[in-house]
Amino acid sequence: MTLLSSSHVDVIRRNNVTVLGNPEGRPIVFAHGFGCSQAAWRRVTPSFLEDYRVVLFDHVGAGASDLAAYDAGKYDSLHGYADDLLEILDALDLRDAVYVGHSVSSMIGVLAAIQAPERFGSLILVGPSARYVNDGSNDYVGGFEQADIDALLDALDANYLGWSSVMAPVIMGNAERPELGEDLAESFCSIDPAIASQFARVTFLSDNRDDLARVSTPTLILQNRDDAIAPESVGEFVRDNIPGSQYVVMNARGHIPNLSEPTELVRAISAFLTPSPAR
Asked: What are the structural domains of the chain?
């Protein structure tokens, strides 16, 4: 067993990295979205423990990460989070990793894979968006007008707990299952409001459209139905701009299928990683 250096130990601690499953298996790394923690994958990861080396972590500022390590300057763009991801892969000496990124973590994975493609074997992007704001033309529909995003961020700043209770059910979808929205609201409320505010601004004001064409890693885009955050037009744009990518529209509704429809999500990931033999 390789001993970790002190710097690698610090990376593991800072991001609350958890390693489970088969130590000899192919690594599969799960990255959570805004307002969540690695706990958001609890209904998905059990299906991969037998065959994969499962890696989970918390973005700095979320979950049980080291809040003292949060640096507003570093995390003023998604590149700061991508750097953390690459440090985790380096600390664990992972190559040919399957990266499963949900929501904003999709673009974090894209940025990291562009920077160090040798670390990645597959990208699986769940509900990705390269830009949330419409660009004012018919060429790109992100789902939100700038005024919508400004109002959302202002409401978050004014009353984060109130914003969380209102927005969590909208983001989750599945109104007939209110317990899912309550679960997400609880996760939102566990995050420091100031950190959540900055992460929300970085997320919703980002524009990674030009980065997509630079991805060389085999990529699967998983699109949800009735997704209030990343509509199908966004998923199709990501598909059309990542060379050779595959695109699957799931029956899962809302923005967080890892909580609402974990069985379908596991099935879609597994089908991509173990394709049927040619007939």
From this structure: 6-273 (3.40.50.1820)
Per-residue burial over 174-183, b if 16 or more Cβ lie within 10 Å, else e, is: beebeebbeb
Q: Collapsing DSSP states into helix, strand and coil, what is residue 172?
A: helix
Give me the sheet containing 97-102, strands edge to edge. 18-21, 52-56, 26-31, 97-102, 120-126, 219-225, 246-253
Tokens describing residue 178: 């209110």
Q: Determine the length of the chain.
A: 279
What is the tens place of the pLDDT at every residue in 252-273? 999 999 999 999 999 999 999 9
Catalytic positions, written as ranges: 103, 227, 255
SS3 of the chain: helix, strand, coil, percent, to 5: 50, 15, 35
pLDDT tens by residue, 142-190? 999 999 999 999 999 999 989 999 999 999 998 889 898 888 888 887 8
pTM over 0.90: yes
